[in-house]
Amino acid sequence: MAEEIHAEIVANVLKVVGQEGQTVDEGDTVVILESMKMEIPVLTESSGTLTKIAVKEGDVVQEHDLIAVVE
Q1: Buried b / exposed e across 42-64, counting CB within 10 Å, b at 16+?
Q2: Is the pTM of this model over 0.90?
Q3: Beta strands 48-53 and 11-16: pairing type?
Q4: What is the Cα–Cα distance from 10 to 22, expressed in whole angstroms?
Q5: Tens digits of per-residue pLDDT, 14-68?
């Protein structure tokens, strides 16, 4: 079952850590967001393969925007 990872806040994409096709474990960082000068890691909630990264560095995400998919 696929896990969609969505933004919880409005933020800038500071760094994309994961790569499509990469195997990830629960709690791995996929993306680092920046909001109000704070760095916020976006973590996986399950193990699997990172099948899609929907953002790139420099993007601005809105609350509920898709960031990545883990299957």
Answers
A1: bebeeebebeebbbeeeeebeee
A2: yes
A3: unpaired
A4: 26
A5: 999 999 999 999 999 999 999 999 999 999 999 999 999 999 999 999 999 999 9
- 3-state DSSP call for residue 53? strand
- How far is 50 from 25, CA to CA, in rounded Å? 10
Please give the torsion angle defined by the CA atoms of residues 7, 2, 52 and 38, in that order, rounded to the nearest 10 degrees: 20
Q: Which is nearest to 30 in space by CA: 60, 51, 58? A: 51
> Which two three-digit tokens encode residue 1?
């079952």
Largest CA distance in the chain: 35
Q: How far apart are CA 69 and CA 6, in angstroms?
A: 9
Could you tell me which of 9, 29, 22 has the C-alpha nearest to residue 48?
22
Q: Which two tokens stand for residue 32?
A: 């680092």
